[in-house]
């Protein structure tokens, strides 16, 4: 598995199928692994935050979650085979996990959302084992009980939907204690899976305008979307420096 660097952040050169195969190898190995699904917003945050960048670069797999990262890799002369979004990887892992008997635990999102997302995944992938779900609105006092519950559930894959960069820091902090073979930050994927948020139509995704669709549907995301032009300018500057 080869890796590229965008604004100092590692991203692995992977197709969706290769990412699933890599996760299967992590599970077979049994030791804890951290997966980051990195979009342009996270990449720009990490560019400005050395602590977050260190977490990303220590992760065992980093996928290109979004067209912005794929564009950046191409501009920097290190093209990626395709984007591998968090939600697409979750769906692919659920399909594979239903066949292999992998156990999943979903932590994050508003009360009831993770449970609804889990139910939807089981409906779409018969035989999928859900070891547990917990919403993401827990205070520090509740954390020891959550960690104990996850350890008792013994999932193969822990999906954490706390939003970036909180989910990346949370996984990095607790990965060794939990000893989960695979822990992956999935952002707002639970909301989409549960039907709380609608994903952009396929034609919008093909045009690489999924980010704009989400801003139109959720105007509160405008401030977050402003990271995209800043990311693009930083990438163009890095491309000039590499020449």
Automatic annotation (TrEMBL):
InterPro entries: TagA_TarA, WecG_TagA_CpsF
Metabolic or biological pathway, per its Swiss-Prot or TrEMBL entry: Cell wall biogenesis; teichoic acid biosynthesis
Keyword NADP: no
GO molecular function, one term: N-acetylglucosaminyldiphosphoundecaprenol N-acetyl-beta-D-mannosaminyltransferase activity
Catalysed reactions, semicolon-separated: UDP-N-acetyl-alpha-D-mannosamine + N-acetyl-alpha-D-glucosaminyl-di-trans,octa-cis-undecaprenyl diphosphate = N-acetyl-beta-D-mannosaminyl-(1->4)-N-acetyl-alpha-D-glucosaminyl di-trans,octa-cis-undecaprenyl diphosphate + UDP + H(+)
This protein's UniProt keywords: Cell wall biogenesis/degradation, Glycosyltransferase, Teichoic acid biosynthesis, Transferase
Function: Catalyzes the conversion of GlcNAc-PP-undecaprenol into ManNAc-GlcNAc-PP-undecaprenol, the first committed lipid intermediate in the de novo synthesis of teichoic acid.
UniProt name for this protein: N-acetylglucosaminyldiphosphoundecaprenol N-acetyl-beta-D-mannosaminyltransferase
Gene source species: Neomoorella thermoacetica
Gene: tagA
């Amino acid at each position: 598995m080869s890796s590229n660097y965008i604004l100092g952040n590692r991203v692995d050169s992977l197709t969706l199928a290769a990412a699933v195969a890599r996760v299967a190898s992590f599970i077979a190995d049994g030791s804890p692994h951290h997966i980051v699904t990195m979009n342009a917003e996270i990449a720009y945050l990490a560019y400005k935050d050395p602590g977050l960048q260190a977490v990303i670069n220590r992760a065992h797999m980093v996928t290109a979650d979004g067209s912005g990262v794929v564009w950046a890799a191409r501009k920097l002369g290190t093209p990626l085979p395709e984007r591998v979004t968090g939600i697409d990887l979750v769906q692919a892992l659920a399909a594979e996990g239903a066949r292999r008997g992998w156990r999943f635990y979903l932590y994050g999102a508003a009360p009831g959302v993770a449970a609804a997302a889990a139910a939807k995944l089981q409906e779409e992938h018969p035989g999928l084992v859900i070891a547990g779900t917990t919403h993401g609105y827990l205070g520090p006092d509740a954390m020891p009980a959550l960690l104990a519950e996850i350890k008792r559930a013994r999932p193969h894959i822990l999906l954490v939907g706390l939003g970036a960069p909180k989910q990346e820091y949370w996984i990095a902090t607790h990965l060794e204690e939990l000893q989960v073979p695979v822990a992956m930050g999935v952002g707002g994927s639970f909301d989409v899976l549960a039907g709380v948020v609608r994903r952009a139509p396929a034609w919008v995704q093909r045009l690489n305008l999924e980010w704009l669709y989400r801003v139109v549907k959720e105007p509160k995301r405008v401030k977050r979307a402003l990271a995209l032009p800043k990311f693009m300018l930083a990438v163009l500057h890095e491309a000039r420096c590499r020449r």
